[in-house]
Amino acid sequence: MSTTLQRTTGSSLAAFPELARLSKARRLKLADELWMSGIGDDTPVPQWHQETLDQRWKDYQAGKTKRLTLKQLEQRLTKR
């Protein structure tokens, strides 16, 4: 680990200049790797999470919600 990362504290991307210089695609890949490293098949899922997912799936199957394309999702997120 570089000395910059060892000395730096904080949880924003600005606190990690080496990461901030990576391409967007590489940062997203790294974020996915970090996320997946913290979860596993034995990670407990809170009951309310499962209930929320079940309800959303039922709503989707019933036609109450619709799918978004990746482009539509990106457009919505950039508006925030």
Please describe what this structure looks like.
The N terminus is likely disordered. The chain has 80 residues and is mostly helical. The protein folds into two domains: 35 residues, no CATH class; 32 residues, no CATH class. It contains five helices and no strands. It is flat.
Q: What would the principal axes of the Cα set say about the shape? A: flat
Low-confidence stretches: 1-6
How large is the radius of gyration?
18 Å
Helix amount, in percent? 55-70%
Overall strand count: 0
- Strand proportion, as a percent range, falls in under 5%
SS-derived structural category: mainly alpha
Per DSSP, the total helix count is 5
How many domains in all?
2
Q: What's the order of the H and E elements?
A: HHHHH
Main sheet summary: none
- Terminal Cα span: 34 Å
Kindly report the average pLDDT value: 85
Topology of this protein?
Elements: H1 3-7, H2 17-20, H3 24-37, H4 47-61, H5 70-78
Give structural attributes.
mainly alpha, 80 residues, single chain
Short description:
With 80 residues, this protein is mainly alpha-helical.
